[in-house]
């Protein structure tokens, strides 16, 4: 998370989950963060209706949202070029945070995946990430959504594929690399809480 706080007071946040219990939990967390304009819906129709009637600033959507799923809702929002909410930040909640699920969500155009059950800290961190790290939206025939690249460590050919890509120069190393024993000891210390 970036340093700073997120002001949720004047944002309209839509929680979309079939379970009223989950909606209440997320609602309580958002109220604890200072949000005061929170809407709740239990299905995809409710999401699409809310988006046609008002400006939504953030959508927190469950992966298993009926009648189809949260991916279908994401596609409906992202693929409709007439939708004024097309660039809406979408936090995608899922209890299946395996790599394949996260990849499908990313490829549908979600802004961030949040594993359920989630803690208030996790939700706040994801909201802050979306607020402070606004990624450029990519519009091509097979995808519309936030740039799927989070960290660029250099382009394979030294030149990016997009006009907005900046050239990257990697400097010479200034100190020797850690050996494997040093790396292992760092991880062991972190696991033991001795950071």
Automatic annotation (TrEMBL):
Gene Ontology process terms (BP): phosphorelay signal transduction system
InterPro entries according to UniProt: Bact_response_regulator (IPR050595), CheY-like_superfamily (IPR011006), Sig_transdc_resp-reg_receiver (IPR001789)
Return the SUPFAM superfamilies for the record.
CheY-like
Q: What Pfam families has UniProt attached to this entry?
A: Response_reg
Entry annotated with the keyword Transcription regulation: yes
Q: Which UniProt keywords apply?
A: Phosphoprotein, Transcription, Transcription regulation
* The keyword Coiled coil appears for this protein: no
What name does this protein carry? Uncharacterized protein
Instruction: Name the source organism.
Output: Pseudorhodoplanes sinuspersici
């Amino acid at each position: 998370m970036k340093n700073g706080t997120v002001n949720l007071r004047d944002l309209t946040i839509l929680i979309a989950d079939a379970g009223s219990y989950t909606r209440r939990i997320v609602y309580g967390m958002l109220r604890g963060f200072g949000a005061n304009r929170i809407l709740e819906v239990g299905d995809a129709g409710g999401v699409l209706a809310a988006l046609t009637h008002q400006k939504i600033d953030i959508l927190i959507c469950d992966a298993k949202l009926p009648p189809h799923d949260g991916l279908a809702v994401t596609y409906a929002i992202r693929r409709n070029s007439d939708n004024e909410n097309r660039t809406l930040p979408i936090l995608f909640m899922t209890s299946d945070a395996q790599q394949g699920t996260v990849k499908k969500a990313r490829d549908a155009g979600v802004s961030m995946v949040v594993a359920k059950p989630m803690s208030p800290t996790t939700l706040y961190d994801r909201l802050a990430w979306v607020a402070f790290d606004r990624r450029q939206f990519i519009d091509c025939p097979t995808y519309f959504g936030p740039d799927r690249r989070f960290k660029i460590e250099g382009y394979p050919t030294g030149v990016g594929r997009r006009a907005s890509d900046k050239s990257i120069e990697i400097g010479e190393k200034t100190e020797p690399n850690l050996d494997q024993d040093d790396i292992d000891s760092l991880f062991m210390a972190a696991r033991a809480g001795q950071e």
